[in-house]
Amino acid sequence: MTQTTISETLVVIDTIPTKGASVLTAEIAVITNALDQFVVKGITQGGSTLTLKSLSTDYTSPAGIVTDASGNLLIIAADASGWLVLDVRGFEEIQLWAASGNVGGSTVTTFIGMSQNR
């Protein structure tokens, strides 16, 4: 579990080492003030950072590395949560980024689960 207070600027809310993992499940719980951005980035074995998912349709119509999601993660309301399941094979790390939709910022908690390659 990681809890972060974020501003209206897109920032990392969690960095998850994924080397050797195949599936990552993340729950994003918004405690105060709704989000207005949510991005998934991957760090490759060569050290490159790639923006993998950033549009509402990336979560409402899962494809590619997003195998399932609870809905549009860009606009998770206060006192609500969303989740996603990612195929993380081949990535060293996954980063979850978010921004608040409120000048007062948002408090966000992430809960992460993973399964290893077999």
Describe it for me?
The structure is a single chain. By secondary structure, the chain is mainly beta. The chain has a single domain (2-116), classed as GOLD domain (Jelly Rolls, Sandwich). It contains 1 helix and 9 strands; from the N terminus they run E-E-E-E-E-H-E-E-E-E. It has one helix spanning 56-60, and strands spanning 2-6, 11-17, 21-32, 35-44, 49-53, 66-69, 80-87, 91-100, 106-116.
**CATH fold-level assignment:** Jelly Rolls
**What is the class in the CATH system?**
Mainly Beta
Trace the largest sheet across and list its strands: 1-9-3-7-6
> If you average the pLDDT, what whole number results?
96
Give the number of DSSP strands.
9
Q: What is the terminal separation in angstroms?
A: 25 Å
Task: Provide the gyration radius in Å.
Answer: 13 Å
Structural class: mainly beta
Could you name the CATH homologous superfamily? GOLD domain
Shape: globular
- The SSE string, one letter per element, is EEEEEHEEEE
What would a concise description of this structure say?
This protein is mainly beta and 118 residues long. Helix content is 4%, strand content 61%. The chain contains 1 helix and 9 strands; from the N terminus they run E-E-E-E-E-H-E-E-E-E.
List the helices and strands and how they pair.
Blueprint: E1 2-6, E2 11-17, E3 21-32, E4 35-44, E5 49-53, H1 56-60, E6 66-69, E7 80-87, E8 91-100, E9 106-116
Antiparallel strand pairs: 1-9, 2-8, 3-7, 3-9, 4-5, 4-8, 6-7
